[in-house]
Amino acid sequence: MIFDDKTILVTGGTGSMGKTFVHRVLSGEQGMPRKVIVFSRDEAKQHEMRTSYLHRAAATDEVIFRNFMNILEFRIGDVRNFSEVCGAVRDADVVVNAAALKQVPTCEYFPEQAILTNCTGAANIVRAISEHGYPVQTVIGISTDKACKPVNVMGMSKAIQERIFISANILNRSTRFICVRYGNVLASRGSVIPLFIDQIRHGGPVTLTVPEMTRFLLSLDQAVDTVFEALANALPGETYVPRAPSATVENLAKALIGDSPIATRVTGIRPGEKMHEIMVSEEEANHCVTRGDYYAILPMLPELRGDLDTPPSSLRKEFSSADTVLDLPGTIALLKTHRLLPEQVSELTSTELLR
User: Fold this and answer.
1) Cα separation of 177 and 234, whole Å?
2) Residue 301 to residue 339: CA distance in whole angstroms
3) In this structure, how many other beta carbons lie within 10 angstroms of the beta carbon of residue 344?
4) C-beta neighbour count of 147 within 10 angstroms
5) Cα–Cα dist 62/46, whole Å
6) Are 281 and 225 in contact (CB under 8 A)?
7) In a domain, 2, yes or no
8) What is the pLDDT of residue 146?
9) Percent of residues, the chain, with pLDDT higher than 70
10) What is the CA radius of gyration of the chain?
């Protein structure tokens, strides 16, 4: 069990993925940790997360409530601040770096802010371990398909974050640095599904950037599953990628609208957006292997490769969201499976969609 008696630090732990990750860690499904530390700079989100356990977990899950009371700790801090990072990292066995600026337009207009959080934040974690010799066992960076052949600042800064963590294995041999990379998370904060549902509730129109645009889709739990899988099995410098389905923006909207008389309006592509996302590039495909339901991108650095034992590549081309696009019935089935069709969430607010 990967978390038995471990102290786990989750930077950005009040975000959508961070909250789901913490919730599942507290369930004990991967072993019972000694402590879980949520490290973030937004006191309001920390308060909301804390009270959500007090009011809901006690009534719905006694185990999680008991673990919340005993082992969950909240710390205000910023990954941009080296001393604050040191204070958090020194107590951790496992660091999950989910702190990020992830909105594409925001990063386009404020690129220096994206660099400070997504790049300097990662470098601060590595520096803290390197300079102080903290006995951290594993650091995992949460990345995005936009880091693959990036065309926007968010993706560029995440691509650099990946390189910061992967290269850290060279000079920090006692700590394993790994990454995960995945696409759009269904119903995560700032994603398109809560926006579409809100537009539908208000009578429309539902705004589409480009109808034919495709995106990889996975649930919050599948995102957490990817992190768990990498923590359990990834070798130093590897990046785990889920073999996720994709859908067009148009079919996503149609699935959510259903039979409602809601109009759609095409608004055009936003600054920094791609028509199709790529999870594994053509260059990375040359050193990508299959691990169950995941691809593992092996590190490019020869010191980490162990080339003599490298198995044949699993891919012959890039892994693009344009490759295996769900049709409309498939898109409906995917949303239905994750209880995201309007009739399934009719009583929920956008906030409740995010747990």
Assistant:
1) 9
2) 42
3) 12
4) 25
5) 21
6) no
7) no
8) 96
9) 94
10) 20
The domain in which residue 58 lies consists of 7-353
Cis peptide before 236 (omega within 30 of 0): no
Please pick, among 6, 102, 146, 158, the residue that the annotation labels catalytic. Answer: 146
Q: From the DSSP assignment, how many helices (H) and strands (E) are in the chain?
A: 15, 16
Angle between helices 121-132 and 153-171 (to 10 degrees): 10
**Cβ pair 97, 64 in contact under 8 A:** no
Q: What is the pTM of this model?
A: 0.92
* pLDDT for position 64: 85
Say if residues 3 and 24 touch (Cβ distance below 8 Å).
no
Q: Express each pLDDT in 208-251 by its tens digit.
A: 999 999 999 999 999 999 999 999 999 999 999 999 999 999 99
What does the angle CA 84 – CA 89 – CA 95 come to, to the nearest 5 degrees? 125
Q: Is 146 a catalytic residue?
A: yes
300 secondary structure, DSSP code: S
Q: Is residue 346 over pLDDT 60?
A: no
Number of folded domains that form the chain = 1
